[in-house]
Amino acid sequence: MIKLSLSQKIILITGASSGIGAAAAVAFSSAGAKVAIAARRKEKLNEVAGKMRNALVLEVDMSEENAAIEMVNDVVKKFGRIDVLVNNAASIIISPSETVATGDLLKAFRTNLIGAVAATREAVLHMRSQGGGHIINIGSPGFMMGIPFYAPYVCSKAAFSAWTRTIQAEWAGSEIVVSEYFPGYISTESRAESRLGAVEQDFLMNPDPNFIARLFTKPGTPEGVARQLVKLILKPKTLVYSDINVKIGAFLSNIPGFRLAISRQMAETARRKKNLPIFGEKLKL
After folding, report:
1. pLDDT digit string (tens) for 162-185?
2. What is the rounded CA–CA span in Å between residue 175 and residue 7?
3. For the chain, which domains are there?
């Protein structure tokens, strides 16, 4: 097996306290990079840092724009430069769409879009002065399908993807490379903020799915994503899907009948598991 090397790379990854972010941080460090890890939960970051070499731990709430800007500058103060920014932090709020609060939407957009925009804006200033850099935005193909009960998340991720593609167009041919990475369903220990009480990560998944649903909902692992992100840094691309099924699913999401059949099944599964009424009946939380 060829050893992948990120030696001399200075990488900042947000949302690094668990899941994809934690696995990627460890993989970057193992490949030789100097890595700054940022998230709200410092105790979790310290656990991740214990698996790395000389990680810079930054306790940051990405919903705070000034904190996101200060985070980037802290990395530059420590290492003298920043080569790669991985915008991975995400706020996930589960709620029936008819009861989504304005505060839920604002919270999702502040973390999933505004914080990332602020961090990128600051990082690009340093990257341009040093001769180049790489922005990697961890998106979600879920907005194409319309994931039931995840409205704040998928709406903000749709906007995040639109922003990613806009800066790809504006900065094409410059010293700043922008990549979009679409993971599919990744099994992690992370828990969403739920308005439906405690939910498991797979609460949308039918335990006895048909072949099509089973094909497109097979979970990946954070470690698998981490390996792909290492390769993406070494060989930047415009868009990368975590696997071929995610790529096919994203394409088929443009077919209304397919999209609705899959997402409707998810909604029905969630209602059964959480004993929720169908839309139009009085919701009891």
Report:
1. 999 999 999 999 999 999 999 988
2. 20
3. 10-202+219-247 (3.40.50.720)
